[in-house]
Design brief:
single chain, alpha+beta, six-stranded antiparallel sheet, 6 strands
């Protein structure tokens, strides 16, 4: 019986350490390589958002806890490869991919059960720079869907 309990304890310990990393870990290990790296609490960053945007993204802004911004000018192909490996290893899901000439934007998210815990935006220009924005949040899939639908509705109405 003691052996079974010891084996279960070891298994539990190993699985808890094997959990997926969040963007904070990537930020910590790469911030020295960045030209700019900022860690901004949500309440501070949200003060700079215009009132027009709060209608569309109100739920998101209320649930955004922390923003991490990294800008890379030098060594960016290496950082981009490292980030892609990080995204694949941690099973980040792709929400949106856009490409315009040399510029590429990919929006990833990390979810736990039915909650979206993190959104990471990767803006990459083949010739100039790489910008990574990690946003810690606690959205449901329904809230994210409603936000995207509201954004689409507003963009169609403005055209």
């Amino acid at each position: 019986m003691k052996q079974i309990v010891a084996i279960l304890f070891c298994f539990f310990t190993l699985t808890s350490f094997a959990q997926e990393q969040n963007f904070k870990e990537f930020y910590k290990s790469n911030k020295d390589r960045a030209e700019v790296s900022l860690n901004i609490p949500g309440f501070v960053a949200n003060m700079f958002v215009s009132n027009e945007d709060t209608d569309e993204f109100g739920v998101f802004l209320k649930k955004a806890h922390n923003y991490k911004v990294m800008v890379f000018n030098s060594d960016m192909p290496s950082v981009q490869r490292d980030f892609k490996a990080f995204a694949q290893k941690n099973r980040l899901k792709t929400l949106v991919r856009l490409k315009d000439g040399k510029e590429k934007v990919t929006v990833y998210f990390r979810e736990t059960e039915d909650r979206i815990k993190e959104i990471i935006v990767n803006v990459y220009n083949n010739g100039d720079e790489l910008v990574l924005l990690g946003i810690k949040t606690d959205l449901t899939k329904d809230e994210l869907t409603a936000m995207v639908n509201e954004s689409k509705k507003n963009s169609i109405a403005s055209n």
